[in-house]
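Letters spell out the chain; the tokens describe the backbone. To illustrate:

===
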Amino acid sequence: MKIRMVETRSHSHNVYDQSLIPRLGLPQIGAILTEQGHDVRIYVETLAPVDMDDLLSADLVGFSTTTATTPPAFAMADKVRQAGIPVVFGGAHVTFLPDQALEHADYVVRGEGHATMVELIDVIEGRREPADVPGLSYHGEDGLVHTPDRENCSNAVFAELPVPDLSLIVGNERMGDWPVMTQWGCPFNCNFCSVIKMFGRKVRHRPVEAVLEELENVPAGKSVFFYDDNFVVDKKRTKALLRGMKERGFKFPWSAQVRAEMIYKNKRSGEWDTELLDLMRDTFCKMVYVGYESVNPAALEEYNKQQTVEEIAESIRAFHDYGIHVHGMFVLGCDADTVETIRSTVSFAIRNGVDTVQFLTITPLPGTDFYYEMEAANRIISDDWSLYDGHHVLIEPANMTPYELQMESFKAMLNFYAPRRAWKMLAGNVIRELPFLIGLFFKERKLRLALPKIAWMSLSPKNWLKIPKVLSDALDIKHWLRLRDVFLVPFFRRYAFQHTREGLFQPQNQKYIAWLRKLAQGRRQAGGMAS
């Protein structure tokens, strides 16, 4: 069959719309289908536009969506179905709301889709009945049909799945970091997270040797992003992987998502796991993405985060001591939050030297405990799925209006990423590394030749994210990594400030902010207060 699959881009202006890293579900399914002889091509809209003529000549078109990307995917799917081509949807959102997706599709693959997709093709080609396929939703003769859920795959099955075939993605050469998945699932149970609802709390992992073999094929000049929701679950396994990377002499910088307590060898005593931190440093870990969520103890308890503010501060210090940058991920707006606790969170991030952040508003993603809690309390204020991106307030907070929470989230980003902080950081870095920079300029001819191009690219914020590639091509790995430490975080901070301002003044966002303001005014008036 000629199969085309699409990962659409959100219509909103959000932290993900500049992401040049595809999710790995479609490339993995694509690898399986290609092995079976099918003609597969994947479109990821952040990398390249979708060729509608190609889609409209396919035998089957699949869409993978997050909640925020369902509206554009639904619109595109409607056009495909009008041409008489069957459409299938997959992903977390449609897993939990399949009826909605079936208004725009012929089939919905719920949960992990690698096995269900293979069996669905058997259905389409007449070799199997849809009722016999677990985890499938479809249009039956008497209405919508949802077959029993398919159990998540075993560790043995997961270990045998093929490596995602990134070559199937149109525009794959534009990818930023090279994505690698080593495990599925997360053993924790944060109440707002959809990962455990989709992949479960039982972690399945690939053999260390298989991951190392995949890493052998990372293209020159690429950084690696480990796509695991929690990179350090089994420390013994993580250390074995890092030792293997060190022994094989891999020189690429890498980043991953981790939890704060991974720094501890013994959390009770507070002793650091220096062996793990040494291995991370020695294998060129340059950034960790840490779900800190809040520095309000009551909020951490509400989120079921199972960590303390002291552990958060200690983790920042530990990573920095080992030369690893920290991207702190915070969630604002739970019932324990107030305007004051939100501002305290921003102050904490600045005071403790977090390198980069995201301050996202708590979002009731379908399928999560938080979603059902807010739905039961009638506290969800919008069902416009395009707004479910962490940048828009979608609930009635307990201690402020939705408008106040919305504006505090913007203020948080603009305060943290204030240009004066970026320039101060850059100046400090340059002064500290001035002898190195002067020597680099005179010794590296390729760098001197690249400077005019870099200067031209720096004039446009849209090109700032392309500058690291130019620099990495001009320098050897050792010099590139040191230079990257000087400029990367300050430049990203400057870009993030610009991106946040653009988002604030985007017409769609201005319209939503105006609606929230009007909503707040109406409620104050209804309560007998002056507007």
Summary: Residues 112 and 152 are 7 Å apart (CA to CA).
